[in-house]
Amino acid sequence: MSGDLSTNFWKWEFRCPCLKCKRKKVRVSSLLLFKLEMVKMAFDGKPVIVLSGNRCPEENKRVGGYPDSEHIPNPDGEAADIKIKGVKPIDIGLAAEKIGGMRIGIAKTYCHLDVRPPSPSKFWIYLGNKIIYSANIENKSLLKFYQIIQERIIDTNLILYNNI
Question: What is the pTM of this model?
Answer without folding.
Answer: 0.92
